[in-house]
Write a structure and sequence with these properties.
The complex is a heterotrimer of chains A (234), B (353) and C (290). Chain B is mainly alpha-helical and 353 residues long. Chain B contains 16 helices and four strands. Chain C has one domain: ABC transporter involved in vitamin B12 uptake, BtuC (Orthogonal Bundle), CATH 1.10.3470. Classes of the chains: A alpha/beta (234), B mainly alpha (353), C mainly alpha (290).
Chain lengths: 234, 353, 290
């Protein structure tokens, strides 16, 4: 198992955002996490990348990640494409990409490879990222994360605010990334997109895992129950 | 979450007991004017002047988010206004004293219009520049002694009296009144609608800035009011000293002391500066002879407190035992008796998930 | 007319010193939104340390002291940032202001305790009195000219680091978005330490040059902080060349003030600052409109 999260609890101050969450991802797998706003999906990704206070275990490649700082976690091969892209706004496209390589180990990904994946970015290498369209910005965010040579790439709400055509493009590119042996965890609001892309799906609700299963075998009713289920009434 | 809420209260049992104790204490302090010796009176006078200064700096930084390093501008200006009125206009002490406060408030308004263009730490240094400008100007006024300063004639000092009371007693009572009025006015301000606006500025300048003009006017009002109060305090302090010079009156150390008292006691509470002023006077009593070491110790204590106890002595104690003598916060009581800060943590978590 | 031109020229050269003062302040603010209120006192500290090392080593040239002073101040800046200032950074602007203000009081009085309150000066040797003749009977002092050259070179170096190196890229990225920089592998507390160390390098150079130019005492820091601050604001936040230009404008203003009456030197500088603040609140050379 590449990533093994067991009984994870996460906190923002006094507020608990995750309750005993367990989740795993095997090498080369694509895992999707779905759930309504506030279900704790992003919190999980932030917890794995070291940005949220947690209790519980996060094992990656047989090593415990909990308690490590974000900059130490990324060098172990876990990289997050954060929600809202979070590009460095005063840096050029290429400088943003190079920031991904800041502390990396290995040389799996190069600028050339990233530009092959996203040819549009090559033309815009010298431009400020603020001049790019939303889709292009998302490409920079993914490319930047790839430059860190991740064995696990986590993507938070890639499709947010993007046109469906662009979303298709981006997921097609992610499939290519997967072919290179990168394990993927995507947090996705668009359930259909998630089910189509992933091998396995987790559904979150109010900080709990309410459903886990192979994407192909889950029924619409199961997903809908896990997504909207009864927990909300409490 | 809203279902658990029962009522919003502003006062507590502790604060009512504290009110009674305060009344007894104030009566005792008033009576001191009759029985205390001159040395005690002048120490007490200084104490209450410092307390007023600390409370005003606290109101600026702790509530309005205006971190000023230039309050010596208003203190020095108050002092000089008093000397000017006494020496050049021939006014009596009361008139001269009133002019000092007014001068502080009047100069505060244009000052604010300039320095409020800066934010945070830059505003802090901007206010400091203002104080430097005033120091340089007063260093160039020959009729007020220029750089070397000027003294008040003894005759003027002797004319300070009230119903046969000695000058020291009058000055002491004035300082006491100044401190009490400052605390009371801060208290009333913080309980008012404007007080809420102030807290909003402190907690979220960016968010509050969007509500624009009103916030600006509240900040301006607080800045002008503290200019008034600091001007009065400067006049009192220099009426007691009888000699003023630009270097001493516009010395940034005045603000250092204010900051020390507020930080040690606890920023953003009305009780904190009282504790801080007590600590400051105790330390001064024992350490002032050490010269530079005294200031080094004050600096080290302040930095350490800021790092280890950011809420200061009072803030830490009050949080631990949940006490408040001046209930300025509207406290929300829940059915369950667990202390919660509703909404804030939850909503920030929700937006990230 | 000649006297006036002379004073303008000396204003430019003095202003380059202010630009040097301000570059460290500007750098630290740009990267971590921190204003070090003790900045001026650290310049004084550097000048006193140079004085002490001259005594200890018996070497005559204060310029040579930079060999010790630069690494020493870099380490001091790094440790101070990691030990004292990093823990104070956060959404609350009050804490860093007050902590650095506390440091200012500590350094100032510590220097007074160690070196007394007397005025001191670093002896620069012959270069102090040497000058280069210009047409029309004007002359330019060799030392002030050297100061200008050094200021330009140092700011150029900082600019090169910021825009041409991996370190600089990380500094700019961190300035844009602290937590995302962490996600990309930037050890941000360490990086802040480096930035503070770099600022202290400018402080070391500024200390030596200021100490040679004129006499100084333990309480000079706040005045120098104010000059640095005024240069930063006049120049516009976030632009190092703007900061240098701001310093030069301040220097010229002071020189014109002094030309009119010695008492007006400081006042003229402050007045120009206040005017700039009223009419160009973003400074004359802002990096970008935000």
């Amino acid at each position: 198992m590449l990533l093994e999260v067991s009984s994870l609890n996460a906190y923002y101050g006094d507020f608990q955002a995750l309750f005993d969450v367990s989740l795993h991802a095997g090498k080369g797998e694509a895992v999707a996490i779905i759930g309504a706003n506030g279900a704790g999906k992003s919190t999980l990704l932030n917890a794995i990348s070291g940005n949220v206070k947690t209790r519980g275990a996060i094992q990656f490649n047989g090593e415990a990640l909990a308690g490590l700082k974000p900059w130490n976690i990324v060098t172990r091969g876990v990289t997050l494409v954060p929600e809202g892209r979070r590009l460095f706004s005063s840096l050029s496209v290429e400088e943003n990409l190079l920031m991904g390589a800041y502390a990396r180990k290995g040389t799996d990904w190069t600028l050339t490879l990233v530009y092959e994946l996203f040819p549009k970015l090559k033309e815009r290498a010298r431009q400020q990222v603020t001049q790019l369209s939303g889709g292009e910005q998302q490409m920079v965010a993914i490319g930047r994360a790839l430059m860190s040579n991740p064995s696990l790439l986590m993507c938070d709400e890639l499709s947010l605010g993007l046109a469906p055509v662009i979303v298709q493009d981006i997921y097609a590119t992610l499939a290519k990334v997967r072919e290179r042996g990168v394990t993927l965890i995507v947090v996705e609001q668009n359930v259909q997109q998630a089910m189509k892309f992933a091998d396995r799906v987790y559904c979150f609700q109010e900080g709990h895992v309410t459903l886990e299963g192979e994407a192909a075998k889950l029924t619409a009713d199961q997903v809908s129950a896990a997504y909207f289920g009864k927990r909300g009434a409490a | 979450m809203s279902t658990a809420m029962t009522k919003v209260v502003q006062s507590s049992r502790t604060s009512r007991i504290a009110g009674l104790v305060a009344i007894v204490l104030i009566l005792a302090l008033l009576s001191a004017a009759g029985w205390a010796d001159r040395g005690t009176l002048s120490l007490l006078m200084e104490f209450f002047c410092y307390l007023a200064l600390a409370e005003m700096w606290n109101l600026l930084a702790g509530f309005a988010g205006i971190v000023s390093l230039g309050q010596q501008a208003f203190l020095g200006l108050g002092g000089y206004a008093l000397f000017f009125a006494a020496l050049r206009l021939g006014w009596n002490p009361l008139e001269a004293f009133l002019l000092a406060g007014v001068a502080g408030a009047i100069i505060a308004v244009p000052s604010a219009l300039v320095v409020f263009r800066l934010h945070g730490a830059y505003l802090a240094i901007g206010t400091w520049v203002l104080a430097e400008v005033l120091r340089l100007i007063f260093s160039e006024v020959p009729s007020l002694g220029a750089g070397s300063g000027i003294s008040l004639p003894v005759k003027f000092a002797k004319s300070v009296h009230l119903g046969g009371m000695h000058r020291d007693a009058v000055l002491y009572l004035a300082a006491l009144a100044l401190a009490l009025i400052t605390i009371l006015a801060s208290y009333l301000l913080l309980r008012s609608q404007r007080g809420l606006a102030l807290t909003a500025i402190r907690d979220n300048e960016l968010g509050a800035r969007s509500s624009g003009v009103r916030i600006f006017s509240v900040k301006l009002m607080v800045f002008a009011a503290t200019g008034l109060g600091t001007g009065f305090t400067g006049a009192l302090l220099y009426l007691a000293k009888l000699r003023i010079s630009p270097l001493a009156a516009f010395d940034v150390n005045w603000t250092s002391y204010m900051i020390f008292m507020v930080v040690i006691g606890g920023v953003g509470t009305l009780e904190g500066p009282i504790v801080g002023t007590l600590v400051y006077f105790i330390l001064r009593q024992y350490l002032a002879d050490l010269g530079s070491w005294y200031l080094i110790i004050l600096g080290v204590v302040a930095v350490t407190v800021m790092l280890r106890l950011p809420m200061g002595i009072w803030g830490t104690v009050a949080r631990k035992y949940d006490i408040s003598l001046f209930p300025t916060r509207r406290r929300v009581l829940f059915d369950q008796d667990k202390p919660t800060t509703p909404g804030v943590a939850a909503s920030s978590a929700e937006t990230t998930a | 007319m000649k006297a006036f031109l002379d004073s303008i020229l000396s204003g430019v050269l003095l202003g380059s010193l202010y630009g040097l003062f301000a570059s460290g302040l500007s750098l630290v603010f740009g990267v971590m939104r921190l204003v070090n209120v003790a900045h001026g006192d650290f310049i004084v500290l550097a000048a006193f340390l140079a004085l002490a090392f001259l005594h200890i080593t018996g070497i005559a040239s204060p310029f040579l002291m930079l060999v010790i002073l630069i690494p020493l101040m870099f380490v001091l800046g790094y440790l101070l940032q990691r030990g004292v200032l990093n823990p104070a950074l956060g959404p609350d602007i009050l804490r860093p202001v007050l902590i650095t203000f506390g440091l200012s009081v500590i350094v100032q009085n510590g220097l007074q305790q160690a070196f007394s309150a007397d005025s001191q000066k670093l002896q620069g040797g012959r270069i102090e009195t040497a000058s280069i003749p210009l047409p029309d009977g004007l002359a330019i002092g060799t030392f002030p000219l050297l100061t200008l050259v050094v200021a330009v070179a140092l700011i150029g170096l900082l600019q090169w680091i910021l825009y041409r190196t991996k370190l600089g890229r990380a500094l700019r990225a961190t300035s844009d978005d602290l937590s995302t920089a962490g996600l990309m592998g930037v050890n941000t507390p360490h990086l802040f330490g480096i930035a503070a160390g770099l600022a202290m390098v400018t402080v070391a150079v500024a200390g030596v040059f200021t100490g040679i130019r004129a006499s100084f005492d333990a309480s000079a820091g706040p005045a120098w902080l104010i000059f640095a601050f005024e240069a930063v604001i006049i120049g516009g936040l976030g632009s190092l060349w703007g900061t240098l230009a701001g310093g030069i404008i301040l220097g010229i203003a002071q020189a014109i003030g002094a030309y009119l009456s010695p008492a007006w030197q400081m006042l003229a500088g402050h007045v120009v600052f206040l005017i700039a603040l009223m009419f160009f609140p973003r400074g004359l050379f802002p990096r970008r409109s935000e």
